[in-house]
Design goal:
Helices cover 49% and strands 13% of the residues. 38% of the residues are buried. Strands 10-9-11-8-7-12-13-14 form an eight-stranded mixed β-sheet, sandwiched between helices. It has a six-stranded parallel β-sheet with strand order 3-2-1-4-5-6. The chain is built from 29 helices and 14 strands. The model has no long low-confidence stretch (mean pLDDT 87). The chain has 612 residues and is α/β, with parallel strands linked by helices. α2 (14-36) runs antiparallel to α4 (65-83), α3 packs across α4 and α13 (293-305) packs antiparallel against α25.
Length: 612
């Protein structure tokens, strides 16, 4: 700690360095004055020797004067050292080297219990803002290791934070997150929490992060306290790889994978009331413009959480040019889902419909549409106006263009019926949202909002997301697993796919509460009728099926679902899940869904667990 303070002082300019030298000279002088009192040597005599070592008496002394002579010699040498040697270029160079290494992030310190952030990407600022206010991390050192220019990044972040006291807790390292020596120097095994976010605009972001995760796992091997580690990945294909991996073993590292674009989608669809709740007899229609990574994440999150009572359907429509090839790739990547789905390809020349695979059944409540056109085309604008006026559906529109100008232009030139009708419209903004914010302030564009990296992050440290997922899993563990003593213990041995499933289950609760008009309290849930409880449980089952299908699990044909003797074998070895079936077929498994519903107060607010 002291060494870090000295390094920081030396890095803050010549004025601080001169003040430090002056303080050192004064401290030594006062120490000599104190020692001189034993020889009745006055401070003026000491000062004379200290400032002018040439005044040292060269005549030989005898007896009691010998010790005094030696002390005088020490004073003279002290003056030479501090006022001459330490102020010449050699000493200045030492300070300059320390200062330069500190500014460039090349100094290293022995740390324990710190929070380690690996990467300087766009998430960093929101993470630091959250760490500044999170009581559980108060006073902890925060290490940021980045492969980018430390001086530039530090200046940008500390200017944005504008909090000198908090910034003193920040330690900046220059290093590569997939370099073992750099990771060791950051004391990863002694960290209390690790965030592996990487850098912006990296060509091999996910590959580097996956390699770094393996190194971290090895460096944190052995016994000791668990170390939560959140790894942000960009590609859905990278996430798919982790879905097939087992839980952590022989390492204290507890890895939780976060897909960056899925997380942005959750910020819009889960943490706000953006999604309208359809009335009885209505469907929900979500139109997604652009077929970008963000668009696919919006669709994925919506498919997992948008399930409603009384059989209400959710229709997800993609709009983009060149949709035939994009649809084919998307369907191939989620073949097990589309084997059970209704989906349609729409172009200016006609429609082609697809139905669930023969022999599997028709029981999913999410349908898909792929429209081969651009948002401003007469075809799409006509559809939007018709859908906005349709009393049988609630409409929402999400614009997911990577180009900010294209997104803003599209958002501000939609059919006026959407603005007047209060249709929820969200536009993706990666950075610089000033133009859109000015448009929103005008009040002329109805229920228009923005989301993305430029929007405020409501859960930057993944604390709420992780906590709710852990609680969902803990309920299953208490009922069907080993009965772990804590949610963290149950979470530690869970495979990655099951962690994501538990998080998705918790993410669906806010919309469930709005759809059924209930509160996440024990009183509200206990007051539910048996019919409402059964409806909520069926909705949870339909949500669960979409989650596991998107993760890569497949259903079995209806005839084969009746034989459950190979349930575990099919699930673990062939990734076939026999519970992907109509709710009425798995009546004996309904308790799994009811457990979640009855314990919504525990999952959301941490209230006591209901009887399992």
């Amino acid at each position: 700690m002291f060494r870090r303070k000295i390094d920081r002082i030396l890095s803050e300019g010549e004025g601080k360095q001169l003040a430090w030298l002056a303080g050192l000279a004064l401290a030594l002088f006062l120490l000599l004055v104190l020692a001189g009192s034993f020889w009745a040597l006055g401070w003026t005599e000491i000062l004379n020797l200290y400032l002018d070592p040439g005044s040292y008496p060269l005549e030989a002394k005898q007896g009691s004067q010998t010790s005094l002579n030696i002390f005088s010699l020490l004073i003279a040498f002290g003056g030479i050292l501090v006022l001459n040697a330490l102020t010449v270029s050699a000493f200045s160079n030492v300070f300059d080297n320390i200062s330069e290494k500190y500014r460039k992030g090349e100094r290293r310190y022995k740390l324990k219990g710190h929070i380690l952030i690996l990467g300087g990407g766009h998430q960093l600022l929101d993470m630091l803002k959250s760490l500044r206010t999170a009581a559980e991390f108060d006073g902890r050192d925060i290490v940021v290791m980045t492969s980018s220019d430390v001086e530039t990044l530090r200046d940008e972040i500390e200017t944005a934070l504008d909090d000198k006291k908090f910034c003193k807790r920040l330690i900046w390292y220059r290093g590569e997150r997939d370099n073992e020596d750099d990771l060791r120097s950051a004391c990863v095994a002694a960290a209390s929490r690790i965030y592996l976010i990487g850098e912006d605009d990296e060509e091999a972001h996910d590959s580097v992060s996956v390699a770094a995760t393996g190194l971290l796992r090895d460096l944190c091997a052995g016994d000791g306290a668990a170390i939560p580690c959140f790894v942000t990945l960009e590609m859905h294909s990278s996430l798919d790889v982790f879905n097939y991996l087992p839980g952590e073993k022989d390492s204290r590292l507890q890895v939780e994978i976060v897909n960056a674009s899925d997380y942005l989608a959750e910020q819009l669809l889960v943490d706000t009331d953006f999604i309208p709740v359809p009335d009885d007899g209505q469907s929900l229609h979500i139109v997604i413009a652009g077929f970008t990574r963000t668009a696919r994440s919006i669709a994925s999150v919506a498919a997992q959480i948008c399930h409603f009572p009384k059989g209400g359907k959710t229709v997800i429509s993609f709009v983009d040019e060149g949709m035939q090839e994009k649809m084919d790739n998307y369907v191939a990547n989620h073949q097990s889902l589309f084997d059970l789905s209704h989906y349609t390809y729409v172009s200016p020349v006609g429609r082609t419909g697809y139905v669930p695979k023969n022999g599997y059944g028709d029981f999913l409540d999410v349908e898909w549409e792929f429209i081969d056109s651009h948002l401003s085309s007469e075809l799409v604008r006509g559809h939007l106006e018709k859908w906005a006026a349709d009393p049988k559906q609630k409409l929402a529109l999400v614009l997911c263009y990577e180009d900010a100008a294209a997104g803003i232009s599209s958002a501000l030139h939609l059919p006026k019926a959407l603005y007047k009708g209060g249709v929820p419209i969200a536009v993706y903004q990666k950075d610089h949202p000033e133009v859109l914010n000015a448009a929103l302030a005008s009040g002329q564009f109805g229920a228009l909002t923005s989301f993305g990296e430029a929007a405020e992050d409501s859960d930057a440290l993944f604390l709420r997301r992780s906590l709710h997922g852990k609680r969902v899993n803990y309920l299953y563990d208490l009922k069907y697993g080993g009965g772990s003593s804590t949610p963290d213990e149950a979470w530690a041995r869970l495979p990655f796919a099951h962690k994501l499933s538990s998080i998705a289950s918790a993410a669906s609760i806010p919309l469930k509460l709005r759809a059924f008009g209930i509160e996440p309290t024990r009183e509200s849930v206990d007051a539910l009728s048996d019919a409402t409880l059964a409806s909520l449980s069926e909705v949870e089952h339909r949500r669960w099926m979409l989650s596991v299908l998107l993760m890569g699990y497949s259903a079995a044909p209806a005839k084969e679902r009746k034989d459950r003797s190979r349930f575990k074998e099919l699930k673990s070895k062939e990734f076939i899940h026999l519970d992907i079936a109509p709710y009425r077929e798995i009546a004996e498994e309904a308790d799994k869904d009811t457990i979640i519903v009855k314990n919504i107060p525990y999952i959301i607010n941490g209230e006591a667990i209901a009887d399992l």
